[in-house]
Backbone:
């Protein structure tokens, strides 16, 4: 019996190169290790992407593989909250409802946010965001682990999705010619081929490295400290997300329930390391001080903001007179403090022939706007629609024109959002008087212009 490699050699000699590639591809299509789509990375974005594509009716006959480096996710809900949470926007909730995640999240817990209030510690300036209808939410606070829990339940029920855990990618060989297959090799020696490779493998993306695209990034010389906080008073009104800009960074309190909030404290690396080492009681004192401390203010800034406030009141525009006060913190949950580095990153290109980047593999932002993971979920909605339409129209999954539509659409949304967040980070980490004056007046004016605030919310929701 003639062996397969002998037949391949005969075909190489008798067929043109392009014809041989088509033959090799058709052979790979019958292989157990060949998939239509491989999703590299099974974090929140990767697992959500795999589920979304698998449930797309137009892709129901396509084989999808999810490669995740960690072990199988076996988290179970407990009374104790996780210290890592995200603020999901309205469009992300709609996506989660569509793919079945939300029913699992809703059955456990989430906290609606009806209002966001941010204010400057070096002036009287502040801004609030709420919905046009007081009964509607502007965001939802959900634990990272709970999202992965919902994804795990849904993904394991899908017939066209295969999940491989502890799958660490060693290398990716991308397509050069139209009929070339994409090959992903794991550290254990196993290889998989596909028509389309989607990189959801985070900031240090192996897929992005294989694509060879330019990546611009920098560290903020800051870290983010997270913790679960216990409030001094049990209040049904703990539905406000608070954010205070202090000279060394930002402090955000995100509601969890009537008596607990989640902390995201961005500060210098040295300060964060000191805060991590403090005894719990002393840490709470430092936190309350940062939330309530009256920092020294410049007279010019004070006079200018008061003058503008008077003008806004005369014009019957919103002013800072309705500022609410944040809750007092009485304690922190044991062992809930942790820290992570902060940085900015953006890939000049999201696509290459047969490959695309999604989520943190393509873009990384500062958490002060709570938009990082929402940008990734926005990528998913866009890519899901484009791939579904491509297959419905009879085109291949790796069609470069379709992938360029995805890249163009998402960069038009992501880049302005990222630049705005980066600008805010730089704007609010200085006490230089001209900058403080500029940002204070700008915050007041934006707060007074309801249509502008609506536009900001609309941008953040996509």
Residues:
């Amino acid at each position: 019996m003639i062996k397969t490699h002998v037949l391949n050699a005969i075909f190489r000699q008798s067929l043109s190169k392009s014809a041989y590639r088509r033959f090799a591809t058709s052979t790979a299509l019958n292989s157990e290790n060949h998939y239509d789509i491989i999703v590299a990375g099974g974090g929140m974005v990767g697992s959500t992407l795999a589920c979304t594509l698998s449930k797309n009716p137009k892709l129901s006959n396509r084989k999808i593989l999810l490669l995740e480096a960690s072990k199988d996710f076996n988290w179970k809900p407990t009374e104790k909250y996780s210290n890592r949470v995200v603020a999901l926007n309205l469009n992300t909730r709609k996506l989660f409802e569509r793919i079945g995640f939300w029913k699992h999240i809703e059955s456990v817990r989430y906290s609606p946010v009806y209002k966001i209030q941010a204010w400057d510690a070096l002036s009287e300036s502040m801004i609030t965001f709420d919905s046009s209808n007081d009964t509607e939410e502007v965001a939802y606070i959900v634990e990272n682990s709970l999202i992965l829990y919902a994804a795990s339940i849904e993904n394991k029920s899908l017939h066209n999705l295969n999940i491989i855990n502890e799958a660490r990618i060693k290398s990716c060989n991308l397509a050069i010619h139209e009929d070339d297959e994409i090959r992903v090799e794991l550290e254990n020696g196993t290889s998989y081929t596909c028509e389309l490779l989607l990189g959801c493998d985070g900031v240090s993306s192996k897929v992005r490295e294989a694509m060879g695209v330019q990546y611009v990034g920098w560290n903020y010389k800051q870290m983010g400290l997270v913790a679960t906080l216990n409030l001094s008073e049990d209040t049904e009104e703990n539905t406000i997300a608070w954010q205070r800009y202090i000279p060394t960074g930002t402090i955000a309190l995100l509601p969890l329930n009537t008596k607990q909030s989640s902390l995201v404290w961005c500060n210098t690396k040295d300060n964060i390391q000191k805060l991590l080492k403090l005894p719990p009681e002393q840490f709470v004192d430092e936190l309350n001080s940062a939330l309530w401390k009256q920092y020294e203010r410049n007279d010019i800034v004070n006079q200018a903001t008061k003058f503008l406030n008077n003008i806004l009141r005369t014009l019957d525009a919103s002013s800072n007179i309705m500022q609410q006060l944040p809750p007092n913190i009485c304690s922190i949950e044991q062992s809930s403090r942790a820290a992570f580095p902060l940085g900015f990153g953006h890939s000049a290109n999201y696509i290459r022939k047969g490959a695309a980047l999604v989520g943190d593999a393509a873009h990384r932002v500062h958490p002060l706007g709570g938009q990082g993971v929402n940008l990734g979920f926005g990528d998913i909605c866009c890519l899901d629609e484009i791939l579904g339409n491509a297959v419905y129209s009879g085109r291949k999954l790796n069609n470069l024109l379709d992938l360029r539509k995805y890249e163009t659409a998402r960069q038009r949304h992501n880049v302005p959002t990222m630049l705005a967040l980066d600008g805010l980070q730089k704007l609010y980490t200085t006490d230089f008087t001209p900058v403080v004056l500029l940002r204070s007046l700008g915050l007041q004016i934006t707060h007074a212009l309801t249509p502008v605030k609506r536009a900001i919310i609309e941008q953040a929701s996509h």
About this structure: The domain at 31-460 is CATH 3.50.50.60 (FAD/NAD(P)-binding domain).
